[in-house]
Amino acid sequence: MLAPNAGFRHLDQIGAAGSGRTVSAYLVARYPLASEAVWVERIASGQVLLDDRVARKDEVLRPGQRLTWVRPPWIEPEVPLAMAILYEDRDLLAVAKPSGLPTLPGGGEFLDHTLLALVRRRHPEASPMHRLGRGTSGVVLFAPTAKAGKPLQATFQDPRTRKVYRALCSGQPASEAFEISAPIGEIPYPPLGTIHAFQPEGRPSLSRVTVLERRGKTSLLDVEILTGRPHQIRIHLAWAGYPLVGDPLYGPGGTPSPGTTALPGDPGYLLHAHRLELQHPSTHARLALMCQPPPLLRCDSARK
Length: 304
Fold this sequence. Notes:
This protein is 16% helix and 32% strand. The chain is an alpha+beta fold.
């Protein structure tokens, strides 16, 4: 039987945007995944504090006040609580994340059942340089200490850093190699309010695609991302007409499939962060950090 976690304290400092709202109205707007009735119940049970005292739902907020939600312990969903060290020194840490394990806390469900929590058992100050979607496996780069964070972030954002993913898409691309530059931005999506997707006026985005194998109705691809937009590969391949096999969210056109209520973290798609090439922040040596893809994302020759 799973044990509950230790709970969590969500702290908000009230700014100009929250000033003049009631406690309940502020919380509904700030955390919309919970209804007003749920927030009223939490306030009535003493879970919400205003400047370290129990709040009332109709109190009007002022700038500078501290609003705290003391969330009681809860049982988190089961996920694969495992990782592997790919590279480790005082300046950087690269680990292999399994599909199904969230990188960071979020969604109101995950706190301890995350890659960050696993890494911090080994390196308490560790911080991720990027994140992979819950259903994506592969290489994740961490700064092992607070001191290592700034130089490693500069290295990670260097244009010479290469990020190559392995993906299984639906369909047969017409070319063996091509680029996708569809812009990505936020669009309305009722289950969450908004979601990242193809948006004509969104941010510039660029992916380079190479076909590795053609497998009847699917194709095995290498995808290098030259920008790091949320869900970029899933959106770009769907926009091009080749959505990831098993993707419950993004369909042709790079927007949510008609009728879907899936969330970005819902698993099912096949995507793996295969290779990360970068310059070491201290030695300046070129590093190639690789993580073996799962069987369905390996070339036929590698599976034999």
